[in-house]
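Sharing a chain and its predicted structure for anyone who wants a worked example. Both blocks are below, sequence first, tokens second.
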Amino acid sequence: MKLRIAGLLLLLSLTGCMVGPDYQRPEMALPQGFKEGTQWQRAAANPQGALASRWWLAFGDPQLNSLVEQSARANQSIVAAEAAWRQAKAQVDISRAGLWPTVSAGLSMSRGVGGSGSSAGSGVAGSGTSGGVEQTVSATLGASWEPDLWGQVRRTIESNQALADVSDAQLAGVRLSIASSVASNYLGLRQLDLDIGLLEQQQQLNQQLLDMTQASFLQGTASNDQLLVAQDQLSAVVVSLQTAQRSREQFEHALAVLVGQAPAQFNVMPRADYAFVVPHPPLSLPSVLLQRRPDVIAAERTAAAANARIGVAEAAFFPNLDLTAEVGFRGSALGGLFNTANRIWSLGPALSATLFDGGEREAALRQAYAGYDQDVANYRGTVLAALQNVEDNLSALNHLQRQADTFGQIHQRNQQLFASQQSQQHAGVASRQAVLTQQLLLLQSEQSLRDAQGQQSQASVALIQSLGGGWAP
């Protein structure tokens, strides 16, 4: 009968009522599509498009793939976020333990001076006496349990599970952020590789033009102003080259830290022939961001945790039921302790309720509701910021595409002009200086084109990140 009663109370605690509001995701009025997506090359929404966890493969660069995978293993921000997630999961298990009884066991022995030396009528076997000294030995097994009649424990579990989901989303967000940072820094480094190569060629041409101007100046066919202009043009290229080299070194240092290495132990060899790839992810509907973006998921789960805490605060207004039981043996010596005559037991429920607390519970409830309202507002703000983020990156890609197309046309025209100047030089109607000047313009147009392509590739990384990850082709 005792077991049946205990089982019934356990069933009530697991299936009984839970005070407080049941959670529903806060409603948001979302647009039907992205504003800037109308100009995107693949603007058709693809809400069924699945995320690819290895989206960086779309850039077709084995070295980039290797760096991203290294960062996933060794980046300390990821290691810390993963540890925080394990802590949150452990907290869920801690709170879940509150649904079950606590069982304890004890073995004790004591000696001391007693009163009459008799414990008759006490329900305990008499303790041995020797010269007024009593000895008591006991072995007990006890259990205590507070049934979760009002759902306080279950609401706590619900809150902690939501917080574990927050930690899980934050871990995913850190992984996405680190992978995006690796890709962006790597592509920026490759863009500078191209810039450095082109600037070095421009420096050589400007040096040749300066030498020719100096010779003409000494011969009296060039003015001092022309000489000064040639010197300034060479100096400007030298400054740009130094800036590019410094930026490349800093990108390399950043990549080293991202993959968990000291900058002195890390090196990326230059590539002057790098070709940028610009992936075009299919757009999803704005509503899909609610399930994809880690920051949106974390904000929504934070609101869910706050909602559950309202139930915890409301449960404090109801009485608590405590059940305790103890069984064991108590005697005067360890030998023969477990005889039937030495057996003891106790069983008793306790019902308690707070009658007056100076308004503490009411204040705690108001605090819980205010915390929920705050988290809901933060969630809606996060969604709006996510939509803006996608629109900004779509806008950037749209305009960068037009810039790249325009720079490509300029580069083609400069190729034609350079070929024309070479032909004129061979015909004797154009000077070597004119050919070098046109070749310099050709290199500058190529640099503008490569920079636009590099920026497109980096903008694709930003769009992928704003969409919450990659996509499955």
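Comments welcome. The beta strands are 102-113, 128-130, 133-145, 320-331, 343-352.
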